[in-house]
Design a protein that fits this description.
Layout (H helix, E strand, L loop, with lengths): L2 E7 L9 E7 L8 E5 L2 E3 L6 E7 L2 E4 L8 E6 L9 E5 L9 E6 L2 E7 L6 E7 L2 E3 L2 E6 L2 E4 L9 H10 L3 H7 L11 H10 L4 H10 L8 H11 L6 H10 L2 H4 L4 H13 L4 H10 L8 H17 L5 H11 L8 H14 L4 H9 L10 H17 L4 H10 L8 H13 L4 H6 L8 H13 L16 H12 L1
Helix pairs in contact: 5-8, 10-11
């Protein structure tokens, strides 16, 4: 005998559709469960009764080295106009069905031998209607095998709700299309929650357009997460502004316990509220990290501090994280390799390295070590070709380590542009920030300065890196 339990879930109300889930358990097999889910589409368009037989047969499973097999078979389609089914039990033997069903999965051969010698059972469901199966899917060991022609249907009620809210459906589909296939969402709850925090309807629509998964969060989860953020951010409006700029920072994770533990830990190691706010807005993945990962990085930085002879690891960690909030989402292996590179390449003593790490050097610690080495090698080669010596190259990079962010072609093109306009290399070494300016801006400003009668070889070229407003004011004075 096997036990049949039927649970009817009315999750879907669209067009009168009903989802019926049948749980079937066979106690005769060791550690074996089969879940068969059937959803059939029915329309009263045929005068004759259409019978559906869904049968489940006790089977003997044979597999070398394996005692158990779990097979999940689901069959789904849309149901409309369902009349109460008449379920009848019957007992007969099916002898002409395949004796062996061979399934290939994950490189293993599974043989399922039909065993019809004892107690075969089947379901007979009779409907006065025509049955249309729109899709059939099979799950074997948690892997879904779906008919290539079938596509999951979108939730029409959800689409209508989002359109009414002003959501950009096209953008949302590109970003997270799977959200539109969900039958249960919380877009109205999300809307009411954010409105209560001071967000406008336009901001809410923008948040959902750019991060549709936000509508899957429950009101309870949202409220708890908001309260945790308020331990860092001073006002609701400030959080709303963060969400408007970066909705994924708030909605990316729903693990509020992990967030709470990370906040407590980061406060405990001496990080200030201002520092945590910077982490939250610039590198929110820090709070999605496991607590152990964040602990590993903090402990590593504290050891670095002590190894360099500094007796205040709390201050050291705070300075590095504030300078480079992305460091906590990198591996300790990468950061260690970069620190060793800086010390060996520039022949720094402990005090010099400590100062670099607490200052501008912190910003490059999260880069790939290969990327740093490649770019530094290119900088040396280019500057050597222009007559620079090793000491000048080191001075250039140490005064502005961000120059290492520049890829080889960008660095070379900017240097060539400046040299071609009679700006000498010593001017560039003394003012490395000019390389932050885009190549097109450099060219246009150089042209304007030349037209204004400036001698670029004697000019303080720092103005090439000034803000647009400040530069234009200076250009107006030079043109008089």
């Amino acid at each position: 005998m096997f036990i049949q339990s039927l649970a009817l879930l009315t999750r879907l109300k669209c067009s009168g559709a009903i989802s019926a889930h049948y749980n079937l358990c066979l106690p005769g097999l060791s550690n074996f469960c089969a879940l068969a889910t059937q959803v059939a589409g029915i329309r009263d368009v045929h005068p004759h009764a259409w019978q559906i037989f869904v049968f489940l047969v006790e089977m003997g499973f044979h597999h070398d080295g394996q005692a158990n097999l779990k097979l999940l078979v689901s069959q789904s389609a849309e149901i409309t106009g369902v009349k109460p089914p008449q379920l009848a039990w019957s007992s007969f033997f099916i002898r002409n069905i395949l004796d062996y069903l061979t399934i290939m999965a994950a490189g293993n051969l599974w043989c399922m031998r039909s065993n019809f010698l004892f107690g075969s059972r089947y379901w007979m469901t009779q409907f006065s209607s025509e049955t249309i199966f729109k899709s059939v899917s099979f799950r074997l060991f948690g892997v879904k095998y779906r008919n290539a022609d079938s596509e999951p249907s979108e939730n029409e009620d959800l689409l209508n709700n989002l359109l009414t809210m002003g959501v950009d459906i096209g953008m949302a589909r590109k970003r997270q299309p799977g959200v539109f296939n969900r039958m249960i969402t919380n877009e109205q709850d999300l809307k009411m929650f954010l409105l209560s925090k001071g967000a406008s309807k336009e901001v809410i629509a923008s948040i959902i357009s750019r991060y549709p998964r936000a509508i899957t969060r429950t009101p309870e989860s949202l409220s708890k997460r908001w309260d945790l953020w308020r331990e860092i951010v001073t006002s609701d409006l400030e959080i709303v502004n963060i969400l408007e700029r970066s909705p994924e920072s708030f909605f990316r994770s729903s693990n509020n316990l992990n967030l709470e533990n990370n906040i407590k830990f980061l406060y405990s190691v001496g990080l200030t509220r201002k520092c945590l706010c910077r982490l939250l807005t610039s590198a929110p993945r820090t709070f999605s990290n496991s607590l152990d990962l964040n602990k590993q990085m903090i402990e590593f930085l504290q050891k670095v501090c002590l190894s360099l002879g500094h007796n205040n690891p709390t201050d050291f960690v705070r300075k590095i994280i504030f300078k480079n909030p992305f460091i906590l989402i990198q591996s300790t292996k990468r950061v260690k390799a970069n620190i060793e590179f800086l010390q060996s390449s520039f022949c720094l003593n402990n005090e010099e390295l400590l100062g670099l790490l607490c200052g501008t050097g912190a910003e490059i610690l999260d880069l790939s070590n290969d990327y740093i080495r490649r770019n530094y090698a290119n900088i040396k080669e280019k500057l050597f070709s222009l007559g620079c010596i090793e000491g000048e190259v080191q001075k250039f990079v140490l005064s502005y380590p961000d120059v290492i962010f520049l890829a080889e072609k960008k660095f070379n093109d900017k240097i060539d542009c400046l040299i071609e306009e009679n700006i000498n290399i010593s001017q560039i070494i003394e003012n490395p920030r000019v390389l932050d300016t885009s190549l097109s801006t450099l060219k246009s400003r150089i042209k304007e300065l030349v037209n204004a009668g400036c001698n670029l070889s004697t000019l303080n070229i720092t103005l090439l890196s000034w803000s647009k407003k400040r530069y234009e004011a200076k250009l107006t004075k030079l043109s008089r």
